[in-house]
Amino acid sequence: MRLGSGTFAACCVVIEVLGVALFLRGFFPAPVCSFSGTEHQTESPAPEPSAGAISNWTKLPPPLFSKVVIMLIDALRDDFVFGSKGVKFMPYTTYLVEKGSSHSFVAEAKPPTVTMPRIKALMTGSLPGFIDVVRNLNSPTLLEDNVITRAKAAGKRIIFYGDETWVKLFPKHFVEYDGTTSFFVSDYTEVDDNVTRHLDKVLKRRDWDVLILHYLGLDHIGHTSGPSSPLIGRKLSEMDSVLMKIHTSLLSEERETLLPNLLVLCGDHGMSEAGGHGASSVEEVNTAMILISSAFERKPGDVRRPKYIQQTDLAATLSIGLGLPIPKSSIGNLIFPVVEGKPMREQLRFLHLNTVQLSKLLQENVPSYKKEPGFEQFKVSERLHGNWVRLYLEENSSEVLSNLGSKVRRQYLDALRALSLSLSRQAAQYDVYSMAVGTVLVLEVLALLLLSGPRALSGKAELDVPLPSPAFSLLCYLLPLGLAALHVTVCTSAGGTCYLCSLPWLTAGGVMVLISTLLCAVLSALTGMFAGGKRLSKNPPQCNSRSSELDLLILLGTVGHTLSLGASSFIEEEPQTWYFLVNTLCLALCHEIYRNCFLGDDCAPQRCPHAGEDFDGVAAAPQGKSPGPDVWELDRASRHPSPLGVLRGPERWMVLASPWLILTCCRLLRSLNQTGVQWAHRPDLGHWLTSPDHKVELSVLAAVSLIMIFVLVQKRCSLASKVAMAFGLLGIYCYRVAIGNLLFPWQQNNKDISKGITEARFVYVFVLGILFTGTKGLLKSQITADDFTVKTVGLWEIYSGLVLLAALLLRPHNLPVLALSLVIQTIMTQFVWRPLRHNAAEVTVMHYWFGQAFFYFQGNSNSIATVDISAGFVGLDAYVEIPAMLLTTFATYTGPVLWASHLVNFLTSEASRPAPETQASGTLCLCTKLTSTSVDGAKVANCQLLRLRELSPHWLSLWKGPQSVSSECVKSKHKEE
C-alpha cells in the first residue's frame, strides 16, 4: 500500500498534537477545591466541641477589627523592606517593624509568581497553577470562594484603587473603584499617583469597611530598570510616605470606634535580579508582609528576623479578622500571632474553625483522607478541645485548665500544618497515566519519521507501507486487547482519578487502538527496512550527501543539546549551550572555507565557490526556459571544481572573513543582554542603554539599527514595499519617541509622553500593506508556475513585513539584535551557503541553531519572568485578547520565526537554480530530507523533554521558553503584573 508523503506528514502532525495535548492534560494537575461551591455561604459554622456539655458558642466569632486596609505593593521583595533598602528608604515602616505594634513576616509565594494567580492566592487561600498564567491574559471573574465575595455577602463595603486586575476578578464587588492599567510598564509615576490621589478623601470618610490599594510603580521600575535602579529607592520612599499617611489616619479614627483597625502591607510577588518575575527564585517568591494594628503588643526591642509564612495564610487570617467564614478552598493557616493576645477560648475557637475547614477540604479531595496524619491530629485536637470546653463551662479555673488549653493549642497548630501540607501535596500531583500515554504517542511518531527517512531519500514521492504477514497481523490484533486490559488495571487501581479513566470507554478504546496501530506501523517499517537492506545497498539513494567535519558537528551538537536537557543546570543555562554551538559552528565553517581556499584538490571532496556565482538574485537558466540536460551536465561537472582561489578581489576576502564577522556579531549580541540564571544579574549593555542617563546613545543606536534594517531588507522588495518599509521604520522611531524611549535630534528630554497609539497603528498599516503585496505575489506565482522571480519576491516581501513588525515590537535596545540578525543572514547566504554548496539538511540545522541563539540574544531565558508582555499592547488602547496574545508570542519568538522565514526564502530561491537537486525526484529528495531533518530534530528534543519531565514533574520552576511544553501551553504571560 502506498501512502502519499503529504498524507503521512498530516497524520504525524495530528497524532503528535493529540500526544502533546494528553501530556499537558496530565502535566497540569487538577486544583484542590471544594465541590460544594459558594452557594452555601449562609451555612452554619462548625459548632464548638464540648465533650457532651452544652456550649453557647455555635455562631461565627465577632470581627476582630473595625476596618481593614490592604496596601499591596506589586513586586515588594522582602529585602526591600527588611534589608538595607528598607532601613534607608522606608524609615517609618522600619520603625513599625522594629518597635511598633506590628507583626512582620516573609510570605512565600508559590510559582507562578505573576499577579493574577497571586491575587487569587491572597484572597482564596488556594494554590493557583501554571495554567493560570494563560488565564492571566485576560483575568476572568473569580468564581471560587474568596474573602471579597464573603465580605460583600456579609454587607461589608469595599473600596478599591489600583491594578484593574482586581476589577476583572471581582466585578460588582466594590462600592467604589478606580482601576489603573498595567499594560504600559514604562509608566511608574502616574500609575501610582492615580491611586494616591484618592487617599485624602477616602480616609476622611466613614462609609467603608475594607480599602484595597494596589500600587504598580515598583514592579514597572523593575521591568524597565531592574532592582538595582536608583528609581527603586525613590519609589520605596514614596510608598513609605503613603503607609505613614494611612497608618496615622487609622490611629486617629480608632478613638471613635470600639474595635481597632488593621493595616496590611504586602506584595504579590518578588522581583528577580533581572527585574522580572514568574519563576521560583528566592527573590521572586519571598515577599514582605506586615500586619499593623494597635491591637498587637508593642515590641520591646529590635526585631530584624521576620518569621516565614505562606502567602495563602492571609485569606484565613482576614476572614477571622472580619468575622467571616474561611473560603472553602483555602489551604492556608491562621496567622496565629494575630489572635495570640485573645482569651484562650477565642484562640481555640479560631483554630478549630480553621482545622474544620481544612479537614473538609481534605475529605473532598483525598480518597484516603483517614490515613493522613493531619486528619488524625485534627480528631485528637477536637477531642481534647471538647474536654477543655467542658472544664471551662464548669468554671474550672485551675492550672489544669491552662495547661490543657496550651496543649490543645499546640495540637491544633500541628494539625493545621499537617493538613495544609497534605493539601499542598495533593495540588502538586500529576496524572502520570495521561503523561505516559501522550509520551508514547509522540515517541511513536518520532520513530515513524526516523524510519521513513531512508525511503524518502531514495527519491520516492510516496511511502510504501508493506502488508504484514498473517502472524504479524494476529499480533497487531492482540495488541489492543492487551492495552485495554492494562487500561482497566490502571483505572481500577487509580480509583478513577486519571483523565483517561474518566473518558467514555469508546474514546479510551480508540486511543488504545491508535497506539497499537502506530506500534504495528513501526514494527512493519523496521521489518521492511531490514528486508530491503540488500536491495538498498545495490541501489543507493540519489541524494548527494556525504560525511564531513561539519556534518559530524551538526549531528553531535543536536544530539548533545538534546541530552543536556536531562540536567536542570543545563536547562537553566541553555543560552550558554547555544552560544557555544553557534561559535563552534562558525569555527567549523572557517576551517572548511580555509581548507577549500588554500588546500584545494589535496583535500577530500570540496564545495567550492565560483567566481560567477550570483549571490543576490535568483540565478536561472536562459530566460523562459527550464534548465536542460546541458546545464545539468555542466553543473554536475562542477561538483568538484577548482579551489576557492578562483575568486579574486573583494569577493575572496569577504568569503575568508565571513566566519570572523559572524563571530564578532555574536560576541556583541551576547554582551547586549545577560540571560540565564547565573549571569542574569551581571551588568550588560542593555541595562546601560535603557538607563535614563543614556537616552541619547540609545537613540543613536536605534536610528542606526533601523537604517541597517532598511538597507538589508529593501534590495529584493518591489518599489511599493520599499516605500512602505521606509515609512514604517520612520514610524517606529516616532512611536518610540512618543512613549519616551527615544529622542529626536532636536530634543533634550521627553516632556509630552503618550501611549503612541497613533504612531504604532501607522506602522501596522505599512506592515499589512507589505504582507498583502507579498501574498499577492505568491498567489500570482501559483498561476504562472514557471515564474520563480515573482514567487521569491513575494516570499521576501512577506519576510520583510515580519521584520518590520519585529522592529516595532522589540524594545529599542534590542533593535541591534534584529539588525545584526539580518547582517548574519546576508553573510551566510552570500558567502557561506551558496559558495560552499551546503545541502538543505545542513542549511536547515544552521538556521535552527541561529534561530535558537537569537531567541536568547533577545534577552529571553527559560523562565517566564523574561517574557516581555508590553509587546502585546503596542498600538492598543484597550485589552484585546487575540491580538495581544499573537503580538506577545511573535515578539518573544522573533528570532526563531525570522530565521525559519529566511530558511523558506533561501530554499525557494535555491530551488530555481539550475542544479540536479531541483529537478523531479531530486526536488522531492531535498524537501523530504529537509522536512525529516527539521521535524526529527524537534521530535528528539520534544520527546526527551517530555520523558524527563514525566520523571521529574516538579521542574515547573524551570519554565521552558522555546521547548515543547511551554510553547504549546503558554504563548505569553500578558499582563503579568
Task: Characterise this structure.
With 977 residues, the protein is mainly alpha-helical. The chain folds into four domains: 2-25 and 432-538, no CATH class; 30-64 and 328-429, no CATH class; 70-310, Alkaline Phosphatase, subunit A (3-Layer(aba) Sandwich), CATH 3.40.720; 549-969, no CATH class. The protein contains 38 helices and ten strands. Strand 4, helix 8 and strand 5 (176-180) form a beta-alpha-beta unit. Helix 23 (549-564) packs parallel to helix 37 (920-951).
Structure summarized in a few sentences:
The chain has 977 residues and is mainly alpha-helical. The chain is 58% helix and 5% strand.
Helix and strand layout, with pairings?
Blueprint: E1 2-4, H1 5-27, E2 68-73, H2 78-82, H3 84-89, H4 91-99, E3 102-108, H5 115-124, H6 131-135, H7 147-153, E4 158-163, H8 165-169, E5 176-180, H9 190-196, H10 199-204, E6 210-215, H11 217-225, H12 230-253, E7 262-266, H13 282-285, E8 286-292, E9 307-310, H14 313-322, H15 344-365, H16 373-393, H17 399-427, H18 432-457, E10 462-464, H19 470-493, H20 499-502, H21 505-531, H22 533-538, H23 549-564, H24 568-572, H25 574-598, H26 629-637, H27 650-672, H28 685-690, H29 695-714, H30 719-738, H31 757-783, H32 788-809, H33 815-836, H34 840-857, H35 881-892, H36 894-911, H37 920-951, H38 964-969
Parallel strand pairs: 2-6, 2-7, 3-9, 4-5, 4-6
Antiparallel strand pairs: 1-10, 3-8, 7-8
Pathway: Glycolipid biosynthesis; glycosylphosphatidylinositol-anchor biosynthesis
Pfam family, one: Phosphodiest
Protein name: GPI ethanolamine phosphate transferase 2 isoform X3
